[in-house]
Amino acid sequence: MSWDHWLEFLRMGGYALHVWGSYLVLPALVLVELVLLRLRKREILGHLGWRRDEFKRK
Amino acid sequence: MLLSRKLLVQGIVRDLENKSWYTHCSPEGFYPFAGTLIPWLFAAALIACSAALYLGFFVVPVDTRQGEVARVLFIHAPASWASILLYLVTAAFAVIGLVFNARLPAMAAMALAPTGLLFAFLDIWTGCLWDKAVWGNWWQWDLSTVSELAMAFFYMGFIGLHTAIEDLARANKASALLLLVGALSIVMDFTAVQSVAAQHQGMQGAILLSTAELATLLAMSLGFIMYAGTAALLRLRCVILESERQSMWVAPRRGSSAP
């Protein structure tokens, strides 16, 4: 499949909302999950009194 | 996020020196092992998903019946498979933890469930958008959709129940039981789905999928599973630290203030 023009690619044959609404929600969810996990890790390490670089060696 | 090569090689050498794989079965032994795996799993997930996106948008031709909207299949079906697989793995870990009274499997179940819920949500979300495009309404009460929704509720029930009970041993027991009941329901639901497959749009053409479409689905599913592994291991490391905070290997040292 070759798209003639990038605008045509973005239009998705009139289904832009449905196709991009499906595909863009995945990176959004992944980003939220990874940020939440990073915050959780930071909180517990801070609670334990470890610095991040210090704990990496364990 | 990626470890430096030196650290990685050190980690692998240390793992090999340990020799016994049983070392990894305790939370303390598993923590560094998980840390070694995470960047590799994440890289593999990125590669597989990129390949799937390329195949799905630039190799697979436009669907003759539904048009471009049929490309939603390549995220909808892998999300559905990933959520079902993750549910069964979560339930298996919870039951192993219950039967053998082991800490690590019970923690693994808690680490897997939120990512399973993420994929169940993704499946329902993409399904709604697809339904809207093809049938004109956002929600269709067909068996497959309702089964997926029920599974999402079981995920939420498991996470909620485990969080609500303070005593860890009781929380593990009660939530494992809920997961097991849910697993029976889910296996039955999806068996029923198979017997009335014609109801659900994705399955009508299941036999007619081209090689390119199958390759896309396979790559995306692999990518989702690799990502689920990444997120679950990251979460498992948090769970391990939180529950082992009293033990020697985690406890603060070098005069830092106690928690």
Can you tag this structure with a few keywords?
heterodimer, A: 58 residues, mainly alpha, 74% helix, rod-shaped, B: 259 residues, Four Helix Bundle (Hemerythrin (Met), subunit A), 8 helices, flat, disordered C terminus
How many individual β-strands of chain B?
Answer: 0
Largest sheet of chain B: none
**Basic shape of chain B:** flat
Q: Report the total helices of chain A.
A: 4
The protein's oligomeric status is heterodimer
Describe the structure.
The complex is a heterodimer of chains A (58) and B (259). Chain A is mainly α. Chain A is 74% helix and 0% strand. Chain A has one domain. The longest helix of chain A has 24 residues, at 25-48. Chain A is rod-shaped and about 55 Å long. The relative contact order of chain A is 0.07. The model of chain A has no long low-confidence stretch (mean pLDDT 82). In chain B, helix 3 (73-100) runs antiparallel to helix 4 and helix 3 (73-100) packs parallel to helix 8 (211-243). Chain B has helices spanning 5-18, 27-59, 73-100, 103-135, 143-164, 168-195, 201-204, 211-243. Chain B is flat, with a radius of gyration of 21 Å. The chains are: A mainly alpha (58), B mainly alpha (259). The A-B interface holds A 1-3, 9, 12-15, 17-19, 21-23, 25-26, 29-30, 33-34, 37, 40-41, 44-45, 47-50, 56, 58 and B 3, 7, 31-32, 35, 53, 57-62, 67-69, 71-72, 75-76, 114-115, 118, 121-122, 125-126, 129-130, 132-133, 227, 231, 234-235, 237-238, 241-242, 245, 249-252, 256-259.
